[in-house]
Write a structure and sequence with these properties.
heterotrimer, A mainly alpha, B mainly alpha, C alpha/beta, B: mainly alpha, MetI-like fold, 79% helix, 0% strand, C: Rossmann fold, Rossmann fold, 6-stranded mixed β-sheet, 25% strand, globular, disordered C terminus
Amino acid sequence: MSDTNTIPAAKGERQHYVTTGSHLPMVVPKQRNRSGLQLTRWIGLSLFSFWLLVALFGPLLAPYPMSAFVSEQIYAGASTSHLLGTDYMGRDMLSRMLTGARYTVGLALVAALLSSLVGAGFGMLTVLLPYWLEESIRRIFDTLISIPSKMMALVMVSAFGTSIPLLILAAVLSYAPGAFRIAHSLAKNLATLEYVQVARTRGEGRLYIATVEIFPNMIQPILTDMGMRFVFIVLLLSGMSFLGLGVQPPVADLGSLVRENIGGLSQGALALIAPALAIGSLTVGANLLIDSLSNSRDNQKE
Amino acid sequence: MRDSLFGLVLGRLASSLITLLLVSLVIFAITSLLPGDTAQQVLGQFATPEQVEALRTQLGLDQPPLLRYWQWLSGFATGDLGRSASNGMDVIQLVNDRLPNSLLLAAITTVISVPVALIMGIAAAMRRGGVLDRTLNLITLSMVAVPEFLVATLAVLIFAVQLGWLPALSYVSTVDSLGAFMKVYAMPVLTLCSVLIAQMARMTRAALIDQLDSAYIEMARLKGVPPMRRVLRHALPNAIGPIANAVALSLSYLLGGVIIVETIFNYPGIASLMVDAVSNRDLALVQACAMIFCGAYLLLVMLADLCAILSNPRLRNR
Amino acid sequence: MQGESLIVRDLDICATPPGEDEHTIVSQINFALKPGEVMALIGESGSGKTTIALAMMGYARRGCRIAGGSVQLGETDVLSLSPVETRALRGHRVTYIAQSAAAAFNPSRRLMDQVIEGALIHGVMDRQQAQQKAIQLFGELALPDPEHIGNRYPHQVSGGQLQRLMAAMALITDPALVILDEPTTALDVTTQVDVLRAFKRVMHERGTTALYVSHDLAVVAQIADHVLVLKAGEEQEQGSVAQILEQPDHAYTRSLLAAARPPAQAPISNKHRTGEELLRIDDLQVGYGHCNRRGEPDNIVLDHIQLRIDRGQALGVIGESGSGKSTLARAVSGLVAPSRGAVQFNRREISPTLRGRTPDQFRRIQIVFQSADNALNPAHTVRRLLSRPLETYFHMNRDARQRRIEELMDLVKLPRTLLDRKPRELSGGQKQRVNLARALAAEPDLILCDEVTSALDTVVGAAILELLAELRRELGVAYLFISHNISTVRSLCDDVMVLYQGKCVEFGPCSTVLNRPQHDYTRKLIGSVPELQPGWLEACQWSTHTQPSTVAV
């Protein structure tokens, strides 16, 4: 939304060129745009931090043990004793979701962090390595990026069976290459800049150049990228759980909760809708937040 | 200089082939070379060592890995994809039965989503900062992050359960009229389209805005060129490359989405075949399906690159 | 249609930067032009000159709006037109020539289609007539092969040709007013002369009223009748060209004039000049691409370069874009490896690449780049930028560094309060001073200056030049000073080397080479620099059609 914001044209030649019109008097629509941007940020921030808090403290707040059969009724609707109803076996949905969210958020956070670490680490490293090694690393990541993430996960699960470490590994193998690409091209571009050349003519070593001259200018784009990867990984892992190939019982993440209760579809069971909406609100919230943050940074740069 | 353009295209084709080869190597390595023993799995844990050994020999698992990779690969080239471990049928047969269904689903989705997304993207770019743009931005920004099963679930709840307009499950065999066809495909296509359109529309808008910000568009404006003509005649030709790329990337997303959609709607396509194969650990079938998906992905990306190369005036006319 | 009169009254333009409140960037601009007159808007970057010029077309860039005043073109009140009427005005009665023709032409459409588009949209003539008229204009603008050049794409013609094609595009509808926005700033001087001459002739023949936006007083002197001097969106002074050049009223105008006429080299009595050799280059060749059997690369950027710089001496290197002058600095610094030749420093051969140079050699040769934006790491503070060379070269402790950093800031005349700022919080001139201070921190013998004043406004650039001269007097540092601007070289350097297509065509003391050039190209280069007097353009006999040879004299 940032590009709706306005840019001063006073300072000479290199500007963004799109227009306001020619008329007097003219209303400048900028104030509204800014509040629009603020709104998405607030929605994003509150949704995302809500789920983060649930992941941290949810299990403590759960009214029932996650796998306790607490009700005679299956697919019960909302009631005072079961705020989100009961699931296909009569367990309390609220308790199951409070526990499941920890897996969804936690696994995705770990996998996103690892993806960015691996990707950005190799991306930086290639600037230091000799050309042939850089090329071979690039080739490997290029190959991995050509395997869609769900394919990678499915193939790996078919070979090894599913487990939490394997799911994380599959997510990292799928999403580190993208992080690598971004970090690598950033580092490559930064390495041609004049301040890096000045450092080279000062006789600085490659390690100094990579860590002190290049890296600090990469942090923000890498963090934004990590946010995007988090969203994708949540979608991937919940998708795998939804297919029954992800997190396995007795443990359950939000995706598994959707799968378990798919039998309630024909009656519109809350037990099905609640976890599906939960995942949606987590990913949408994170996406809105990242978008508004990266936009406001673009504006600062102007 | 036509030669150099030709060379560029040829180089792109070759690089795709090499990538496909490397991808096949990765898939083969994961599924065949690692400790999980196919023979043991097929026979179960009560089989005697002799039985396992016999099956290993029969399946060729005692041969060196590179030779097996070569056999697998050449089998692929000749259409021999091996045998399904779970029901003993030829993999090629299973794939042949299912692939057309998936292609049909993908084709319908593409035909609907691409024009809608392009129009949305162009409209948003033209009305940049306006109410339409901001509304579309919020919607698409949310839609790209929504899991397919949420869309599918909500669609079923609304159209099948609440309204009763559509059946909750797809059965291709019952299609005998246009009405029935629409009923069967409406929800799977709707689910796939919703995320796909959002993605493509966003990327189209971004690619177009990139061009609309350039100096030559300001020049066109200062020549008195009307807005529609500025976008369609001036900006769009220069945005073809990025837009083609956006479409290819989004359609490759379709490959992932189709897995969920075929499963949830019980649609007899190749993606649901693969999910079953993964559950049964039917490796030959998994390999074949994975190669088909990865090949399709690479094909799309390559086509987009070719579009970008051919639409670039610097490369086209020297 | 002939030129019409233009009257601007009380023009105000406001801008709203993101996250800030609206403020006025142009206020109370008044001027009037009779038909056929040319008005120049003069000012530095940020003075609002382009913003004012665009308002003549009822146009304000994104984030700006025309807040008040009137623009009267002939009988038309431009600012009160409806959007449709405004569109009909643009590209028909008022046309625009942009600074960067390379960016202003659509890369994917043929030149002819773009040149005649305005005429067709506004229904001035049919396609056939428009094409004929375009070809006629191409001829008048001295474009090569006027019949067919329109069939090409923008990337297939040169920058100077594009600029003339844009003039054809602007003139095809016989507009009442043409706006020229720094139309020759991006061009080399030798190209600029031709383009200016072509512009002037066609505009004169047609009696076009024009608004000429520029930062270059000498260029304006050739083409304008009146001058309006702007600073920060306000008029400083307005008058005829002769009056502005000869009797400027306003102090700001005088400072602009002074910066445009740098004092011609007061011969420097330099106590540090001992005649001791510092840098010597023998038969240097630099190129890129694959090497052939004799070890010569495919594309040779520099060839047969010989030069010598003594301690405390300043050698200027002049040349146009593509002459290889920046490559020379890179080769000396070790950033690019030469394919032949040797570099001697302090009478000892040094490694041609970075690998193999000693820390002391690194310290003694420092490089300062053109764009201070890219030369200073945006993530670091000024303090950190300056302390790193002190650490690496002198292993100073914290206190010693602190003292030295403060000395350096004094040396380049920057307040110490800037020490904890990051580069983006500094102005262009301040950044370039930090850039210099970082080089000085190494206490070098030689500083390679690559276009250090080119990205700066003239007044700011003049101050940097002065600083460079002062540092040389006080510290005895030698310069390899690379520039495309002859007057900066004249005011700073002892010797000068003229590069043309990678070869040295003339070398010698500034006074000799620049005052009595021997080689054709040097003469052309010097002769093409506009002088601050009207009528110079008519007197100048140089043109690109006389192609000099590359044989050295």
